[in-house]
Request: fold
Amino acid sequence: VAPSGSNQNWEEDRPFTSPSLKTLSKGEEASRSVPVLLIEDNAGDVLLIKESLKEHGFSGKVSVISDGERAVLFMNEIDANADTPCPGLIVLDLNIPKRNGREVLKRIRESSSRCAHVPVVILSSSNAPVDREDTARLGASRYICKPSTLTKFMEVGALLKETLNIGA
Amino acid sequence: LTVSPILDPMGRVIGASKILRDVSERNRLEGAIRASEQESKALEHELLLLIEASGTLLSSLRSAEVLRTIVGLAQRFVKADAYAVWRMNSGDGRWTLSSSSGLSNASAMQDLSSNVPPDALAQKPILIEDVEREPLLNARVEILRAEGIRSMLIIPLAIQGEISGTVVFYWRAPHQFLGPEIRISVALGNLAASALGTAELYDQQLHLTAIAEASQKRTEFLAEAGAVLSSSLVYEKTLAAVAKLSVPIFADWCSVDLVNDRSDIRRVAVEHVDPERVRLAYKLMERYPPNETDLSRTAIRTGRSQLLEEITEELIDKTARDPEHAEMIRGLGLRSFILAPMLMGERVLGLITFATAESGRTYQHPDLALAEELARRAAIAIENSRLYEETKRHGQALRVSNVELRRANSDLEQFAYSASHDLKEPLRMVSLFTQLLKKKYANQLDSEASEYIAHAVQGAQRMEMLVRDLLAYTTASASPGKPLELVNANTILEQTLGILHSDLKASGAEVTRTELPLVRIHAVQLHQLFQNLIGNAIKYRSQNAPCIHISAEQKQDEWLFAVQDNGIGIASEYADQIFGLFKRLHGRDDYEGTGLGLAICKKIVESVGGAIWVESELGRGSTFYFTIPQNAE
Reply:
């Protein structure tokens, strides 16, 4: 794992570099092209979420940030640079390295940009009521417990799209 | 002159009476008148003397006093040169001079030890005018001669028909016996015998009282010692206290020795009223450590008690190892002692030694019995103390191992929790990707590869179930730090039935229930209980559609819940087993499951202070009961 602030992985993960972003942020295109940001360290889950989104006809860009630290840095950049586009949906895992999901959620909602209102779906393996309650209080849009059967996991894509459409 | 012989019952002459008469008629008449006057005067005198004597004699209660009084009275009754009262020991027939007067060397007279054979007395007086010519006295004439005795009057003392002594009058000049003299002597003898008899009874009475008192004292001592022995379980202290108590009531010296498991002997107490003496005893022991041949070591070895009534000089010399040793032993001034081993069955726990010294007392058999009894009680006290210590030690060890066990258990639970928690994520990946593999590539693979994937999918699913249940089990009793609040069991049941909805519908189950109470338990716990029990009722259904009835009723201080079904039931021999970890009665192919569901239920119920059990019969359905205390904290 690269130290915080390093650009090495940042470039790879750096989302929303596509020119289409501008178009999206203007709301000129349909939801399927709105970029989705996954804050998730588990490559398996990333793959499954992408698969699930694909299954439900989502063809937009999916970017990934794999730790809490970089997620916070990303928010800092959005706030500092008005040109940096904001994603249409953030899918946030709670159990991520360096900064946990709660801190990241809090940072998102504290954003000075319009990103503060972006829909955030918590996708966690925890089913603990305390996690549901805490994240709801911090402004999460939805809470999904990571399913352990493929059928159920494939439904996650539908839920995300639904949220994206509402939020968009 | 009339001489009449005095005969013994064998017809032997043992004496004679001589009566002189005046043959002159006139003289005889005058004499008779005078004699009659004198006689009546003499009789009056005798009578007065006897009345006085009886008063005097009866006023003395102790026999020693009576004996002295007899001698005194004899002096007033009959004029002689010396007087003596002899007593005969009824046991060995030996005579002793009990009291005397007028003898120049009474102790020499003691040598007349065998006085007159009792049968020779025959309850009649013996008159000896001349000791030199009396065959009865042949053997003793030398002694009498030394005292200058010439004549003797021997009056037998018969107590209750038995000759038990004599009153003897001695004359240093030849004496001619007179009728009144003999008569009054005999009367005095009778009176003396009767007084002596009474006094002896009184003596005996006193003796018996003394014995009774001594026995009473012993009982009291024993009771007190018993109380001391049972007062504390620290027996060394107790034994020292008993030693202290024995001195000086029962002994002048008392010491206690203890024998340990390795047969080492240790002195725990030495008591004497004078601490200086105690130091001396310790010094003696230090200087001359006891060896195996010592009486005390023998007593410890054999467990036999010993009474030594009299410690003689010879014994000290024999026991001592050198003259200095003997001197030190003498310094202790011991008179007699008792060695009383403390026995528990065959085992000798120690020895209590009692000794008398300056009190001048000597131990007798009753004292030995007392000492043995005391040692017996001391042994019991030691044994009790040992048992108490042992129990305490075991209790301590048990507490320690309980703490360790609890810690080990909690460590294990923590481990199980972490392991199952951390297993969950990678396992989900295995499960999901095998499923994805199957989904995406099933038609590109041959049937063998498809089967392999199917096994992998199944295995991963099973493992997931296990991990889920293990997590549920490890967290079943862990309360999330919140105090238990009252939860509505009806609401929880509704939620559970909602979750189980599809399973219930698929099996065609009919669920009925009574009104359920508010109970003190975490909602998740009750939910888990209902879910596992109702889930089992669905899973283990018979051919018929499941009928599940959930009820609760109030018992004294708890709620009794019941989940009743019409399923396959459980054979009674398994009724307890099924609540154990990983206990399964069926093959995996028949019924899916981890064997944790009921173990989780048991853990939950026990964590709130309740109990869980099943009543069932194979083929007749089961009813699972669990209780939740009403006042659970």
User: Anything to note?
Assistant: Strands of chain A lie at 36-39, 62-65, 89-92, 120-124, 142-145. Chain A touches chain B through eleven residues (CB under 8 Å). Chain A has a mean pLDDT of 78.
